[in-house]
């Protein structure tokens, strides 16, 4: 119960700062993740097989150009940044360490990445979560040189860390018959491995100054088009959805344990599962027509990306899914808005919210 209260308090402090972001500049944000959050890091890898820098990606982005985002327009993170009143943080590999951008927020996310190093290894070039944290570590050294040790520590303590990883540990690892982990582990064992690896990674980030962490839980992977085709009749894979629900539950416990053990840690789970499931179950309520197949019509167990020779759907706004893995711009907007509103709802029930934990809020 105490842990639950702590989570409410954090969410409250978070909203207070968001509400005031119209006047204050938005938070410095460091983003870690996979293809859901990548804004162009993989474009810098000539050999990477996890890229989205070609048409039709970006067709509904403001520039109408492919950017490396794995969707037709904005990512969930893009919509969230707009709510914070800041531009989306740039891709780490697009920056020079002399850029002032490194003091304002960076996106380290890389398509194909997972919590485990071996996840996504067949994409050849990408940044695993460990590699993303190592780049953040390098960045912090540069920040120290730029603004001094004490200021750098404060900047890192006050920054917001948005992390979205885990989907590829299932889709591009555990559920792939040709990857070793699916053979070596039962799901119970695999989740212990994910949990303990994530524990070390979050401790490492904490050691580098991260305090305010939002971990995005995994969505209903069993219902994405690339998984539905495996059912033979287009149904969601119930077993896969059970796996990711279990993962989200264990990560919630992990974050609570870290908050209890590490002074100043404020780590919360943003549970996208019910939000995405709602769109899939009731597409028409949100202006969609189809939530079971992708606009690019590339639903298969191999490939699944929207290649230049794909035949797009007539109306992209009708589809929850853009390609066989990734949600559309229209879906991302609704998911981001709903996750934001859910954070508010979480706090509205408490009659007398506790004061924000510490002088800075998140
Ligand atoms: C994962 O790779 C990193 C290097 O990127 C290495 O430091 C780390 O020890 C590896 N972790 C495991 C569990 O093998
Ligand atoms: C995950 O870690 C948390 C915190 O240490 C622990 O409470 C939970 O039991 C762990 N879950 C698994 C499946 O290892």
Automatic annotation (TrEMBL):
Q: Name one GO cellular component term.
A: extracellular region
Please give the InterPro entries that the UniProt record associates with this protein: GDSL (IPR001087), GDSL_esterase/lipase (IPR051238), SGNH_hydro_sf (IPR036514), SGNH_plant_lipase-like (IPR035669)
**One MF term from GO for this chain?**
hydrolase activity, acting on ester bonds
Keywords of this protein's UniProt record, alphabetized? Hydrolase, Lipid degradation, Lipid metabolism, Secreted, Signal
GO annotation terms (biological process):
lipid catabolic process
Q: Where in the cell is it found?
A: Secreted
Signal peptide range: 1-21
Q: Identify the domain of life.
A: Eukaryota
The record's PANTHER family line, in alphabetical order, gives:
GDSL-LIKE LIPASE/ACYLHYDROLASE-RELATED, OS02G0732800 PROTEIN
Q: Which family does it belong to?
A: Belongs to the 'GDSL' lipolytic enzyme family.
What is the name listed in the Swiss-Prot or TrEMBL entry for this protein? Answer: GDSL esterase/lipase
- Upper taxonomic lineage: Eukaryota, Viridiplantae, Streptophyta, Embryophyta, Tracheophyta
